[in-house]
Amino acid sequence: MKIRTKKTLLPLMAAVGMAGAANAQTPAADGYTALPSGIEYKVIKKGDGTRKAGIGDQVEMFIHVYLGDSAIFDSRKMYNATQPVPVKMTAPTRNGDLMEGFMMLAAGDSALLTVPVDTLLKGNAPQMPGMKPSVGQKMVYQVQVVSVRTAEEQKKYDEEMAGKQKGIDEQLLQEYFKKKKLTPTKTESGLYYTITKKGTGANVAAGQMVNVNYTGMLINGQKFDSNTDTAFKHVEPFTLTVGRGQVIKGWDEGLQLLSKGTKATLYIPSALAYGSQDRSPQIPANSILIFDVEIVDITDQASIDEKKIKDHLAKNKIKATRTPSGLYYTISQKGLGPNAAKGKKVTMNYTGRLLDGRAFDSNTDPKFGHVRPFDFTLGIGQVIQGWDEGVQLLQIGTKGTFYIPSALGYGPSGSGQQIPPNSVLVFDVELTGIE
Fold first, then answer.
1. Strand locations in 204-273, DSSP E?
2. What's this model's pTM, rounded to 2 decimal places?
3. What is the pLDDT of residue 21?
4. Residues designated as active site
5. How many angstroms separate the CA atoms of 332 and 349, rounded?
6. How does DSSP classify residue 52?
7. Which parts of the chain sit beneath pLDDT 50?
């Protein structure tokens, strides 16, 4: 449940995006055509497609990759091998980029493409086992193009397929419920659920952190994952923040129907699960998923942040004042005059840290590259909420520290690589001017 994306096609993607495009083509040995970037291609079977792939198109293909005499990747053997690989056509950028070769093909074409290993490595492709530079080695790609669609055509196709699959899923679910003599509740999205044990308190809300026990199975009863069954070797609480896309849509919706202690079963149509993707060898494309779930605990982020701040203050023997919003602050040097007010332009010195002490920004430390006064208009959303509130507690000359819960900082999104999601922020601040 922790990984939602399809396994990366390493041998394919090691070469995709590594070429420089050009239009000229020249004949090469054995019936191949050479492209200026170093790719050579040969159509071994012409399909019935009338238009070659272009930038922005969605192409589906089966692909088999060889390095010398060794087969290193075969999309037909990946997971359940029922679906071709989707590839979005982008403009080639460096020598050896497969995109240039793919754009020579139309729907139904089968072709061979070769790329010199030296060309790939010069284009900063990752060096895979078996690659030998400076010996004339080539990577060979055997490709069968299934479809070529424009972005608009792909969107229409996806909608048509989703509509058909929705009907198929509904029929399968109804047959299953009839066979099992079940009468589950249906939501507007198409999710079905039953409650086997009622919990207490309010239902889970988006943004809350929950601990869940679960067992997942296909509609044929085959288990594919569980955090309570030792056969799956991860008997541990599964923790997630609900409504943040960390899990499939059926979970994000279904868990919000449950309260602490509730045991339930979720019947999730494929559109709310992994859709047309082959998720794993155990979960084929367009699979309906059934989950027995139990809400073990519910914690909202505000409570988590509150505990973190209190523990930090206690550990460091700091006495801080708390505001109703959850902001904590200390004053180390009192200022003069009236407090800063909403709508006033203020000038600040600051250093921002995480609770573990790591500094992520400062306008007084040269290593951050902007040693200059920081000014903004207070109370109109030019800075995080914790600053808009906290600075109004200060006078000119005041020095202090803000302890800002994540809801008043950057919340579940975080900010860049330095500030992770749901981070408590600590700012040492000095108010140097009010206009």
1. 208-218, 223-226, 238-241, 259-260, 263-268
2. 0.67
3. 36
4. 214, 224-225, 248, 274, 291
5. 14
6. B
7. 1-23
